[in-house]
Design a protein that fits this description.
The protein is of the alpha+beta class. It folds into two domains: 103 residues, Homeodomain-like (Arc Repressor Mutant, subunit A), CATH 1.10.10.60; 144 residues, Regulatory factor, effector binding domain (Multidrug-efflux Transporter 1 Regulator Bmrr, Chain A). The chain is built from nine helices and nine strands. Strands 1, 2, 3, 4, 5, 6, 7, 8 and 9 form a nine-stranded antiparallel beta sheet that branches. Helix 1 runs antiparallel to helix 2.
């Protein structure tokens, strides 16, 4: 676990060293020996904010510190931290600090600050997590997809589900699966899908996708605990994992009807693995 945490901390140190440069998620994730897809999932679970949010907050912190020192011009701070115009820099700065960059130069200005992150895993109480590791052959899903950005996906994917479910019981895809796949930088595709059978017609506006055969870790939870279970997978279970590493660049949510006597839908979170 120590080497895993050291690699993640190295990626954060790399960001800190290059806050005034163009930061690429591929290079950041590479410092932790992870794909951008998994790096961003783990970062969010460990740190409570996205990679993009962290970089913006740190840049605004550093920019304010520079402006508070005599002699630094607003335009110089904007260019240094990657903004093409003083206006776009000023808007971001004011959202973060609550004051304009010009006011930040005044003596006694009240500024916000986000300190550099330092990752440290501590064991507290031994939280139990149920899971099983199973081998599955390739299978095909049929459904609809939409592209998302990791910075906003936690807010936008539920909207996607709400739009789809609003079609009612006559909707062509019931929504057995929610699949994150095809990560490119900060973007990825999310599918709302069912299992595809070759003898069935593909509904209009839908497509199919083959999910590769894999070894999967499967975590059961209820839909009300979905986000909490996701966080525990990436922040507690993964750092302690022995004998396996992450495989592929996708993960799957499987939604099953409520069990008899229950009002809460059962969900399984599938994470692909390979033997280390």
């Amino acid at each position: 676990m120590q080497s895993w945490i050291e690699g993640f901390q190295e990626s954060i140190d790399y960001m800190e060293e290059h806050m005034a440069d163009e930061l690429d998620i591929e290079a950041i994730a590479g410092k932790a020996a992870l794909s951008p897809f998994y790096y961003q999932r783990i970062f969010g679970a460990l740190c409570g904010l996205t990679v993009g949010e962290y970089i913006r907050a740190r840049r605004m912190t550093l920019a304010a510190q520079e402006l508070a020192r005599a002699g630094t011009k607003v335009i110089d701070a904007a260019i240094r931290y990657g903004y093409d115009s003083p206006d776009s820099f000023a808007k971001t700065f004011q959202r973060f600090h609550g004051i304009t960059p010009s006011r930040a130069k005044e003596p006694g200005a009240l500024l916000r600050s986000l300190a550099p992150l330092h990752i440290k895993i501590t064991l507290e109480g031994g939280n139990m997590m149920d899971y099983r590791i199973v081998e599955k052959a390739p299978f095909t899903i049929v459904g609809t997809k939409r592209s998302f950005n990791t910075d906003t996906s936690y807010q936008e994917i539920p909207k996607f589900w709400n739009e789809w479910m609003a079609q009612g019981e006559d909707r062509p895809i019931k929504g057995t699966f929610g699949v994150c796949i095809d990560m490119k930088g900060k973007g990825f595709d999310y599918w709302i899908a069912d299992l595809y059978f070759p003898w069935e017609d593909i509904p209009e506006g839908c497509g199919t996708r083959v999910i590769p055969g894999s070894c999967w870790a499967q975590f059961p939870c209820t839909i009300s605990m979905l986000q909490d279970t996701n966080t525990k997978i990436w922040s507690e279970w993964l750092p302690a994992l022995k004998g396996y590493t992450l495989a592929g660049e996708y993960d799957i949510e499987v939604y099953l009807p409520p069990e008899e006597g229950s009002q809460d839908m059962t969900v399984y979170i599938w994470v692909p693995l390979k033997k280390a």
